[in-house]
Each structure stands twice: as structure tokens, then as C-alpha cells.
Design goal:
heterodimer; A: alpha/beta; 6-stranded mixed beta sheet; 4-stranded antiparallel beta sheet; globular; B: Arc Repressor Mutant, subunit A; ATP-binding (chain A)
């Protein structure tokens, strides 16, 4: 791994839950606009790594540096503010607010940042067009298909123009065709916006959309570019 | 699968007669396809000619003379090189990969490193195919998808084998 010029760098990450070591000296780095897949067996620590990188979980040891700032040294409020303004998130499911329409869901991060409704929804619709879901803007999440819902979630993750998108098994609940479409649109939109993508997946066909792969086994990470 | 490299790898543990080599090969790799004696001797004479093995001794008895073969330093280097090079990803590669994994375990080399190298090579090809698919028409997409599904199956085998290396090491070293 070459951290020079990296946007997000982690070194020596350790995290235990009780006596179970989830991370054991894990390392990671990603450049602006790069898509890095984090792979590994179930329970290997890949989601914990993503949570530490995103500042959601504090590691027991090690450092996470984002754009030159040590995330582990920030207070909760500062870290939350940084997450809202710089990071976007896509999860496997259950991330859209069921009471809001899809366009309101996509506009939500902008509204929370103080952007007026009309402007926020206009920006949201622009992202929904890119993700090919502009026609479901007025529907609620319960009224759209799983694939459409996931593309709405991707639009919401990108609407604030984050510099890093964290995607945890973003196609895990989708069939092959919808999974491919989500990956294609997610990576194209992220690359066009120069956003880095940290992609946690156990599917190699999904990982093939990345530029590079990190494998986590027993809490330790390995950069597979170095394997050859 | 390279019979020559496999026999060389089996010789690393110590000198053997041609008959012992055939038996070791059949026990480890020849479950459904035992090696013919003729193939053992023709392979050994090629390895001798190339300086990868040498004759360690000749036993004379009632029948024909029995040569005992030993691997040379050049032979050890050749095995090491073969094990460290990833195979070209293609369908039905598993028998060569299985042979390499078993030989790595038998010769004390890193089998998990070998699997990781192969995994990286597979994923590299999957990235190329995914790129081609993104830019291609439907026919390209379907052709690439067929290859991608096969490579994915290989990768699942690599992952599963990685998780079972300790168990396999115990079995092959029995």
C-alpha cells in the first residue's frame, strides 16, 4: 500500500468486542477517485474496518487520518460533522426513511445541512436522473423495487458531493442484474464526482468493479496488489 | 498440469526410484488418472537431460537396473518458480491449482501465498472483463458474463481451500 497522496489512511487498527478481536493491526489507504474493495470471509472484520474508517466506531489502537486530520483525535461532534459533510453511506438495506418520498429521501442530507427545500429537491432530482430513478421521485420507498430503492440510496449518498463513499454490501439484497446496474452506476457516478469508494463486499463480481482489493482475514488486512 | 514439475516437487522430499515416484504421484494426484510408467521414465530422462535431476544411485538386481533420482539445485529453483507463478485463469484449472497447493504443503512453501497470488490474478482478469462489459454491446456483455461466472467459481474454490489449508496439510503429510 502506498499512502502517499492518499485521502484516507489507517494504520495499526485494533478493535476487540469483549475477548473477540475484530481488527488486529489492520491497515488501509485510498486515493481520491479510487474504488477499493474490502473482501474477506464472514466475521473477518471487514465491516468493523469500514466503521473505523468512517469514524462510526473508535478503534482501541491505531490511527485513521482523513485529509491530514486524525479522526481518532476528534470529539464526537466534530467527527459527526465531518461525516455529514465529507462522507456518504450506502448499506445493504433499511436506510431510506419510509415516511418520506424518494426525492425527499435523496434531498434529506442537504436539508439537514440547511439547504432550502426547492433547491435541495432540484439537486436531488439531478442525482436521481444519473442513477436512472427520476421517475420514482414521488413514490415512497415501500412502493419501489429493491433495485430502484438501492439506486435511490446511492443518489442520497452522493447528493452532498462527499469525498468518500462507504458502501457496505450495497448489492447484497439484489439479484445479479440489479446488482450489476447499481455497481455500474455507483462507480461511474463516484468517479465522475472524484469521490473515493470503500466497497465492502463478499462477491468477487462486485469487487471486479474496483481498482484495487484489500482482503481482511482474522482482523488483518492484505493489499492484494502486492500479492503478484 | 505439468507432470515434470509435479515429479520434481515430489523429489524435493528426498531421492526416489521411478516406481516410488509413480506411487507418490498416484496417491496424491492420480485418483482418477494414474500415471503410466512410460510417462514417468520419459519425464525423468527429460529432467535428467535438463540438469533438474541427477541419478543418485543404481541398484542392480535380478531384473533391470533401478535408478534412484535426486533433485538438483536447479530443479529446486524450477519448482519454486513454477509454484510462485500464477496460472492463466481459465475454466477447469482446479487440478493444476490443487497440485500446486499440495506440493507447496509437501515442500514447506507458503500455500496461502500461492492461493493469494492466484486470487489476485483471477481478480485482475475479472476487472478487465468488467471494463469490457461496461463498454460493450449486449453480446459482449453476455460473453464476458459467462467468463466472469466461471472465474467467480474458481475464486470461491480458492477461498474455500484457503480456509481448509490446515486440514489439507494434515492430510497430505500423513
Amino acid at each position: 500500500m502506498t499512502p502517499a497522496g492518499s485521502l484516507l489512511v489507517a494504520t495499526g487498527l485494533c478493535k476487540a468486542y469483549g475477548t473477540t478481536k475484530a481488527l488486529d493491526d489492520a491497515a488501509f489507504s485510498i486515493h481520491p477517485g479510487e474504488v477499493v474493495a474490502v473482501m474477506g470471509p464472514s466475521g473477518s472484520g471487514k465491516s468493523t474496518l469500514l466503521h473505523c474508517l468512517a469514524g462510526i466506531v473508535a478503534p482501541d489502537a491505531g490511527t485513521v487520518t482523513y485529509d491530514g486530520r486524525d479522526l481518532t483525535a476528534l470529539g464526537d461532534a466534530e467527527r459527526s460533522a465531518l461525516r455529514r459533510s465529507q462522507f456518504g453511506f450506502v448499506f445493504q438495506f433499511g436506510q431510506l426513511v419510509p415516511e418520506l418520498t424518494c426525492v425527499e429521501n435523496v434531498a434529506l442530507p442537504l436539508r439537514l445541512a440547511g439547504v432550502r427545500r426547492k433547491e435541495a429537491e432540484a439537486t436531488a432530482l439531478g442525482w436521481m436522473e444519473r442513477l436512472q430513478v427520476e421517475d420514482v421521485g414521488a413514490k415512497r420507498p415501500g412502493e419501489v423495487s429493491g433495485g430502484q430503492g438501492q439506486r435511490v440510496a446511492v443518489a442520497r449518498a452522493l447528493v452532498t458531493r462527499p469525498r468518500v463513499v462507504f458502501a457496505d454490501e450495497p448489492t447484497g439484497a439484489l439479484d445479479s442484474l440489479n446488482g450489476e446496474l447499481v455497481m455500474q452506476l455507483l462507480t461511474e457516478a463516484a468517479r465522475a464526482a472524484s469521490a473515493a469508494v470503500v466497497l465492502v463486499t463478499h462477491e468477487t463480481r462486485v469487487a471486479a468493479y474496483s481498482d484495487r482489493e484489500i482482503v481482511v482475514r482474522d482482523g488483518r488486512s492484505r493489499d492484494m496488489e502486492r500479492a503478484i | 498440469m505439468s507432470i515434470g514439475h509435479t515429479l520434481l516437487g515430489l523429489l524435493e522430499a528426498g531421492p526416489r526410484h521411478g516406481y516410488d515416484l509413480k506411487r507418490a504421484f498416484d496417491e496424491n494426484f492420480g485418483h482418477d488418472r494414474p500415471l503410466a510408467y512410460g510417462q514417468v521414465y520419459s519425464t525423468m530422462s527429460r529432467l535428467l537431460k535438463n540438469g533438474l535431476v541427477e541419478v543418485d544411485g543404481i541398484e542392480s538386481g535380478g531384473g533391470p537396473d533401478r535408478k534412484r533420482y535426486a533433485i538438483t539445485d536447479a530443479g529446486i529453483t524450477d519448482v519454486a518458480h513454477w509454484l510462485s507463478e500464477p496460472e492463466k485463469p481459465e475454466p477447469y484449472l482446479h487440478s493444476t491449482l490443487y497440485t500446486k497447493v499440495v506440493l507447496a504443503l509437501l515442500t514447506g512453501r507458503s500455500a496461502s501465498g500461492l492461493l493469494d497470488t492466484q486470487r489476485a490474478e483471477h481478480l485482475r482478469l475479472m476487472r478487465i472483463l468488467t471494463q469490457r462489459k461496461r463498454k460493450g454491446d449486449l453480446a459482449d456483455q453476455l460473453v464476458c458474463d459467462h467468463a466472469l461466472f466461471h472465474l467467480e467459481a474458481d475464486l470461491r474454490w480458492l477461498e474455500l481451500t484457503s480456509a481448509r489449508l490446515d486440514q489439507l496439510a494434515r492430510e497430505v503429510r500423513r
